[in-house]
Specification:
The structure holds two protein chains of two kinds. By secondary structure, chain A is α/β, with parallel strands linked by helices. Chain A contains 14 helices and twelve strands. Chain A has two domains: 84-337, Type I PLP-dependent aspartate aminotransferase-like (Major domain) (Aspartate Aminotransferase, domain 2, 3-Layer(aba) Sandwich); 348-469, Aspartate Aminotransferase, domain 1 (Alpha-Beta Complex). In chain B, strands 1-2-3-9-8-5 form a six-stranded antiparallel beta sheet.
C-alpha cells in the first residue's frame, strides 16, 4: 500500500480551495502600513478543495473509533457518544455565544453551568463543583491546589501526598506539580490499599491521600470508609481520582465514603468525545470545607438571576480561561437528561455486567493475577502466552487484524504484561462475543502458530512500528527536502 | 547470569564494589521487564545519595520507573554513554549499562543486600 503523503508533500504553488470574486469597488491600499505583517507563511500547503477533502478522508479511514466498533481501552471508558448530544451542543444559543458576553445576555448558559454543577454534586455526594478544569489531570492539579490552600489557611500546607502503587501516572505528577513529595502505598494480595502501610505512613506531614475507586484493577476499595477515617484522623484529605466513576454512577457516592475532593471526567463517564473528537473536561467537586477555595468566577443565583461572582478572597484563582470547555458541559448535560436518574444507575450496572461477562468468558485463556471480584474492567496478563514467547504487545497487535481496538497495555504496573479491558455499557452482547472470540482465537494461535502473533498486524494500513527508535530519536517536525 | 561478586536489591539494582567505589546498575530481570530503554535521567556528579534515595528515572517504551541507590555516598561519575546509547542497559545490564559510580559512605550498607544466589532465589519467588 502507498503511504498517504503529508499535506505539505502534495502542495503545489498557486493552488487554492477558494477564490474570492473580483473586487467591484476601489481597493483601499496600505491600510496595514507600518504594522508588522507577515507576507508569506513559509511552506503553508497550497492545495485544492478536493485534495484537502480526499487527504483527510483517507486519513480518517485509516483510523479506528467508537463509531466503528468496540474500543475496550481500560481506564479510558471509551463509550459511544450519542449523536443527540452533538445536536444540542450545536444549537446557536450555545455554539454562537461569546465567552465574554455579559451575564444578563447568557442566562441560559449560566443556568446550565449551575445545573451541571448541582447534578454532579448529587451523583458524587459532594457540596460544590467547578467545571473549569479542561481534563482529568488538570482536575487533579486543581484538587491538589485546593487542598494546599486549605492546609495553608490552617497554618501548615504539609509536605507529603500518599498514592497507591496501582494509581494512574498522572496522580503523582499532579501532586508533585503542586509542590508535594509523593510516597507510594503498597497494594495487598487483593490488589487494594494495604491498611497497615497506610496507617504507618499517615502522619501530620501528609496533606492528602489520592485514591482511585474502583482502582485501576477494577477492584472496589472495600475499606474506603476505614481508609478515610485513618486519613481524617491525622487531618489529611481524601482525594479521589474519578476516572472509574462509570462503575459507581447512581449506585453509591464518593462523598458518602469519606471522599473530600474528586475530579470526574465528562469525556469518560458522561459520554463526551475523547481526544481528537473534542476537548476533555475534568470538573472538580469538594466538601463544604474546601468550597471557599474553588476557582473564580462562581455562578450564583441572586434575586432570580444568574450572576458571576468574582469576589471570593480565598479562591485559588482561575485555572482556565472563560468557563471551561462549555460545549462539552452542554453535551454531558444532554446525556444526563436523556438518561435520567434510573438510566444513570443503569450505566454502572451494565458496565459492570459487561466487564464481568468478558472476565468470566476469558479466565481460562488468560491469566488473572488478582482474583478479587472486579467492577467495570478486568486486568488479564500475558503469563500463559509468555510460555510460547508471545507478549501482551503481540496480542494487542493481532487484535488489530481481527477488527478490534486493543485494550490498555502494560498498566497498571503491578501486573506484568497487563491487558486491561473495559468494554463499557454501550457494547451489545454480539459485540462482546466478537471480542471474546477474537481473544480466544489469539490464545489458540499463541499455542499453535505464535509466529502469526509476533509478526502481527498483517492487514492494517501500517504494520508494526519501531517504537524504540521513534522514542529514542523522535522526529517531530517536518522539514522540506528531508 | 548474575555475577557472583555483585550485591543485589529487592528493587532489582546491583552494586559492584571496588575499594570504596560502588558501581550501580539495574539487573537483567529489571531490563527485561522494562522493555526497550529509551532514556535514562542521570544525577549530577557530587550529589549525595542516601540508601534508597532516587538516583534518577529510566524510561522504556512501556513505562517510566525510578532507580534507587542501594548504598549511601557521593556520586563521582554518571555513565554519560547512556545519553546516546540507552540500549546498553538492555544489551549489557551488568556491564556497559552501569548507571553511576558512588564514593561509598558506609560499607555496612552492603550487609542489607542480597548475594547472587539469594537474588536468584528471590526472583523465583516473584515468578511463582
Amino acid at each position: 500500500m502507498i503511504r498517504e503523503p503529508l499535506i505539505f508533500e502534495i502542495s503545489d504553488k498557486g493552488k487554492r480551495a477558494f477564490r474570492l470574486p473580483k473586487l467591484d469597488i476601489k481597493a483601499k491600499k496600505h491600510v496595514f502600513e507600518g504594522l508588522a505583517i507577515r507576507d508569506e507563511i513559509q511552506d503553508f500547503p497550497q492545495v485544492s478543495e478536493v485534495e484537502v477533502v480526499r487527504h483527510f478522508t483517507r486519513l480518517s479511514q485509516q483510523n479506528y473509533c467508537v463509531d466503528l466498533g468496540i474500543y475496550p481501552l481500560g481506564s479510558c471508558t471509551m463509550k459511544y457518544n450519542p449523536k443527540v448530544n452533538e445536536k444540542v451542543a450545536a444549537l446557536d444559543g450555545f455554539a454562537q455565544s461569546h465567552p465574554l458576553a455579559p451575564a444578563d445576555m447568557v442566562q441560559g448558559n449560566l443556568e446550565i453551568i449551575k445545573l451541571v454543577e448541582d447534578y454532579l454534586g448529587e451523583i458524587a455526594g459532594l457540596d460544590a463543583f467547578t467545571l473549569q478544569p479542561s481534563a482529568g489531570a488538570q482536575g487533579e492539579l486543581t484538587g491538589m491546589m485546593l487542598i494546599h490552600a486549605c492546609h495553608q489557611a490552617r497554618g501548615n500546607p504539609r509536605k507529603i501526598v500518599l498514592i497507591p502503587d496501582s494509581a494512574h501516572g498522572t496522580n503523582p505528577s499532579s501532586a508533585h506539580l503542586c509542590g508535594y513529595t509523593v510516597q507510594e502505598i503498597k497494594s495487598n494480595e487483593n490488589g487494594t490499599i494495604d491498611l497497615a502501610d497506610l496507617s504507618e505512613r499517615m502522619t501530620e506531614d501528609v496533606a492528602a491521600l489520592m485514591v482511585t475507586n474502583p482502582n485501576t484493577l477494577g477492584v472496589f476499595e472495600y475499606d474506603i470508609c476505614k481508609i478515610a477515617e485513618i486519613v481524617h484522623a491525622k487531618g489529611g484529605f481524601v482525594y479521589m481520582d474519578g476516572a472509574n466513576m462509570n462503575a459507581l454512577t447512581g449506585i453509591c457516592r464518593p462523598g458518602d465514603m469519606g471522599v473530600d475532593v474528586i475530579h470526574i471526567n465528562l469525556h469518560k463517564t458522561f459520554s463526551t468525545p475523547h481526544g481528537g473528537g473534542g476537548p476533555g473536561s475534568g470538573p472538580v467537586g469538594v466538601k463544604a470545607v474546601l468550597e471557599p477555595y474553588l476557582p473564580i468566577p462562581r455562578v450564583e443565583k441572586k434575586d432570580g438571576a444568574f450572576v458571576l461572582n468574582f469576589d471570593r478572597p480565598n479562591s485559588i484563582g482561575r485555572v482556565r480561561g472563560f468557563h471551561g470547555n462549555f460545549l462539552v458541559v452542554v453535551r454531558a448535560l444532554a446525556y444526563m437528561l436523556s438518561l435520567g436518574p434510573d438510566g444513570i444507575r443503569e450505566i454502572a450496572e451494565i458496565a459492570v455486567l459487561n466487564a464481568n461477562y468478558i472476565r468470566k468468558s476469558l479466565d481460562k485463556d488468560y491469566h488473572l493475577k488478582y482474583t478479587t471480584p472486579t467492577l467495570h474492567e478486568c486486568v488479564f496478563s500475558d503469563k500463559f502466552q509468555k510460555e510460547f514467547g508471545v507478549s501482551n504487545l503481540d496480542i494487542a497487535k493481532r487484535l488489530i487484524d481481527l477488527g478490534v481496538h486493543p485494550p490498555t497495555m502494560s498498566f497498571p504496573l503491578i501486573v506484568h504484561g497487563a491487558l486491561m479491558v473495559e468494554p463499557t455499557e454501550t457494547e451489545s452482547r454480539r459485540d462482546l462475543d466478537m471480542f471474546i472470540e477474537a481473544m480466544k482465537q489469539i490464545a489458540r494461535e499463541a499455542k499453535e502458530d505464535p509466529e502469526i502473533l509476533k509478526t502481527a498486524p498483517h492487514y492494517s494500513y501500517i504494520r508494526r512500528l519501531d517504537e524504540t527508535t521513534a522514542a529514542r530519536n523522535p522526529i517531530v517536525k517536518w522539514e522540506r527536502g528531508k | 547470569m548474575y555475577p557472583n561478586n555483585y550485591h543485589y536489591t529487592k528493587d532489582h539494582e546491583w552494586v559492584a564494589v571496588s575499594g570504596d567505589t560502588a558501581t550501580v546498575g539495574i539487573t537483567d530481570y529489571a531490563q527485561n521487564h522494562l522493555g526497550d530503554v529509551v532514556y535514562i535521567e542521570l544525577p549530577a556528579v557530587g550529589k549525595h545519595l542516601d540508601v534508597h534515595q532516587t538516583i534518577g528515572s529510566i524510561e522504556s517504551v512501556k513505562a517510566v520507573s525510578e532507580v534507587f541507590s542501594p548504598v549511601s555516598g557521593e556520586v563521582v561519575e554518571a555513565n554519560a554513554d547512556l545519553n546516546n546509547s540507552p540500549e546498553a542497559v538492555n544489551q549489557d545490564p551488568h556491564g556497559k549499562g552501569w548507571i553511576i559510580r558512588l564514593k561509598m559512605k558506609n560499607k555496612g550498607d552492603l550487609q542489607a543486600l542480597m548475594s547472587a544466589a539469594d537474588y536468584e532465589k528471590y526472583l523465583e519467588g516473584l515468578e511463582a
